[in-house]
Amino acid sequence: MPGDGPIDFRELRGHEAVRQAIARVVPGYGRAGDIGRSKREFHVEGRVRHEPSFPTSAGKARFLPVTTPPDILEPGQLRLMTIRSEGQFNTVVYEEEDLYRGQTSRDVILMHTLDMRARGLNNGDRAVVTSETGQMMDVRVVSYRIARGCAAMYYPESNVLIPRTVDGRSGTPAFKNVPVTVTPR
Predict the structure, then answer these.
(1) Strand pairing partners for 184?
(2) Does 42 or 58 have the greater pLDDT score?
(3) With CB atoms counted within 10 Å of each terminal CB, which end of the chain scores lower, N or C?
(4) Does residue 25 sit in helix, strand or coil?
C-alpha cells in the first residue's frame, strides 16, 4: 500500500508538495517551499560568499585538479553540453526567453559557426540532433560563441539525448559530455 512506508508518495503528486518536502529535508533549501507562490529566486543558505572565507580548517578555498575525460568523439560528432536558461530554476522553466544568451526560444542548438558550415548549416536552419539514446527532429541551429567541436542545448528539453550512464566518481549523469551528430533536416 502506498501509505505503508515512511513516505506517502500520493502526497507528492504535485510540484508544490515536492518543493515543500525538499524545503523540509534539504539543508539550506527552506525558501524552495514557497517558490511556487512567490516566484522569487533564492540563494541556498550558506553558499553565497561575499568575503574570501570558506568552511575549511584554513578558511581558504581548496581546489582539486580534475582529469580531462578521454575523447569519446567519433569523426563528425560534437560534444553536447546541456544548459539552463536565465528564466529557469532546476527543471522548472518560467520563461521561454533566455536573456543570458539572447535566445527567444529553447528549441535551439548553439554551435560554432565553423562547425555549422562543416555540416552545411546556416544560422536559423532546422536540424536533426542524434545521440546514442535518442533524436530531436526540428532543432533550430544558432551560431554562438562556443568552442569548436562543442554544442549546447537547453535542459530538460534535450534529455532524450542524454544517456543514463553516470560518472563513477561524482555519480552524476554526463550532461556536459554527450557525443551527438547534427544533420540538416
Answers:
(1) 127
(2) 58
(3) N
(4) helix
**Grid cell listed for 137:** 527532429
Domain map of the chain by residue range? 8-62, 78-184
pLDDT (tens digit, 9 = 90+) per residue, 96-114? 999 999 999 999 999 999 9
Cell 539552463, located at residue:
84
Residue whose C-alpha is closest to residue 51's, from 61, 62, 64, 42: 61
C-alpha span between 11 and 14 (Å, rounded): 8
Q: What is the mean pLDDT of the chain?
A: 90
Cα separations in angstroms, 166 against 69, 99, 114, 145, 157 = 13, 31, 31, 28, 19
- What is the value of pTM for the model shown? 0.69
State yes or no: pLDDT of 147 exceeds 60: yes
C-alpha cell of residue 49:
560568499
Cβ-proximal residues to 57 (8 Å cutoff; 6+ apart), any chain: none
In the CATH scheme, what architecture does the domain 78-184 have? Beta Barrel (2.40)
98 CB-near residues (< 8 Å, 6+ apart): 85, 86, 87, 106, 154
Most confident of 14-28, 68-82, 107-121: 107-121
